[in-house]
């Protein structure tokens, strides 16, 4: 039986185009909202520290990191890392990002199941990512001789795809916590809340597209495997 992989090629290309659009839209949104000052006049650093304090979290530090859109929470050393602009800015986008990253700290402090599962996957995936591309390459090059390397590569790649999908509820939940808190605490006005929500939505879409792209790539390798197997 012949395995038709044409739809998979189309999905991969479409995912790449959508990913480019989402990244462009995200940058433009953050650039737009960073120009609008908060009426509360709080910086990203101050908002992050206030949110942590409100949730009784005293062992997490808020630090500045180089780059743009490099914001993240590190559960290993318990730091909320805010990009230089978010750390110092007093804007709707800075408020959204700072609160979102603190949302991850709250997840960590409350043992949020999806975050725990994702964190448990990180050590294994960090090792897998080093040699997985080489195994997949060897699998494609050796496909006429044996399917074993490609099969192993597909299994390993499926772990990275699983990780990308596990990330989705973690990110959406952090944004939900962030938006609820900045509203409850009076950090933003209704108009600023709408901008913060919009910025976080576009940020979340980057993870959605990444997950879909990973799945499409996995299916691409599966299609190669199935097609070669059927021709044997």
UniProtKB/TrEMBL annotation:
Species this protein is from: Hymenobacter telluris
InterPro entries linked: Zn_peptidase_2
Domain of life: Bacteria
This protein's UniProt keywords: Membrane, Transmembrane, Transmembrane helix
Protein name: Zinc metallopeptidase
Membrane-traversing stretches: 6-26, 134-159, 199-222
